[in-house]
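Worked Example 4.2. Read the sequence first, then its structure tokens.
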Amino acid sequence: MEMHQVRYFLALAESLNFTRAAEVCNVSQPSLTKAIRKLEEELGGQLFRRERTQTHLTDLGHLMKPHLEAVMAASSAARFEAQCFRSLEKAPLNLGVMCTIGPRRLIGFFQRLEEEIPTLEVSLREGPGDWIMDLMMQGELDLALLALPTFPERLDARGLFSERYVIAFRKGHRFEAMNAVSLSDLDGEDYLNRSNCEFGEYATKLHPDLPEPDVRVRYESEREDWIQAMILAGMGCAVMPEFLPIMPGILTRELVAPSISREISLVTVAGRRFSPAVRALISLADRFDWTCEAA
């Protein structure tokens, strides 16, 4: 069954006149008649009964009419959705965000994105970097924001901005009196371990012989909010990216000796065709001033 057959059938069912139906469909009457006969063959019975100048729907025609109307309605809806998708009148987008990336440098970007594409419907998926990359490979994500030292060959990464690693602690800690904190200054400190932290990967890549500080790990959690709440409760300090702390009261000092930074990248699957929404987001990312934070 082809869509033009459905269209011819519905036009004829409406007018009950082959000549008028052919005019409505902008085809010749023989072409319309041939298409109707082919449809009858496919459905296994006569759809119209012609009696001299009168044309009537048969019982099978009456039975098939609501089904073919539904087919035509679904086809029209699909074309409309596709048109909206192409023109960004409806713009769904599935975005993965690595869970260690804080929102401070991203909110302004999303505000601008909403201004440029008011119809954008963004679904955010947050999690560890490896999990986000797996979702991208499986086609469940259109693109992702990741901060990893290296990426698989199948992924294309465009750098957006970099951020330093800092030591986070609460007010009154001895680090508050320092302008910067070296890794060796952590010796003997109560420490809160961030399970999804990639600091060790960056440190090993940049400084293979760097000794680990002698800290007392008191708690470990994959939840960044729990780590920050524990810092405020005086339960320890933690190394984290400078734009990650969002809870009021958390103080930070730059980590030095060594000083280590990471790059936040917008990542796509190499060779995958971009939707209009993805192309629009990439275009804005290339133009956006990533040095600014949302007000």
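Now turn to a second chain, presented in exactly the same format:
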Amino acid sequence: MSHPSHAQPSISSVFTALVRRDVTLAWGQGGASLLALGFFLIAVSLFPFGVGPEPQILARIAPGIIWVVALLASVVSLDRLYQADYEDGSLDDLVLSPMGLVGIAGAKVLAHWLSTTLPLAVAAPALAVLLNFPDEGYWVLVGSLLIGTPALSLIGSIGASLTVAVRRGGVLMFLLILPLYVPTLIFGVGAVDAAVMMGDPLPHLALLAATTLIALVVSLAASAAALKLALE
């Protein structure tokens, strides 16, 4: 009589469990997501005091302020994207799961976007009010952030995986990924500026979406390769 074998967990179940765990940890006590959101709220709120209360000036520079600060806020939590699991040995266990390294990178990136960069996009309209942001640009601002912020998490994954075995590699990671963020920043701000100036934001949004798709294709494979080197 044969004994029933224990069913192996499916790729989707392991993927979902990893995403849920990372999101929970990110919003836990002292989580990186709270730090990133707090940085975003405080930094944007300080600009009216530093630049001055003139509505015209604030409205003109508002798209750049929100996008740049959102970019910097997303970087705040990237240094722990893989490092915590690498240090406690969890990453070695995850490699043995059905997902493989590409699946691990995908789950980590999705969890980072859901817990860190997506809340920045949601909070952006409220902060735009402080900068006297024109009403006609709100939907494009939110849309550009929803389209472009996944690229921030994807590109950040490359830097986080390259520096996972480096002690205090946060500065090195920032230097590695900052130049790669430039196209996303240009197209995101360009789309919002076009909407505010009564132009057509669709070409900028299309380029922004293309940037995110390219980052999706490249970053997961690059992150998996970097993690493999770190674990060898």
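Notes for the reader: The CA atoms of residues 41 and 126 lie 10 Å apart. The chain has one domain: 30-231.
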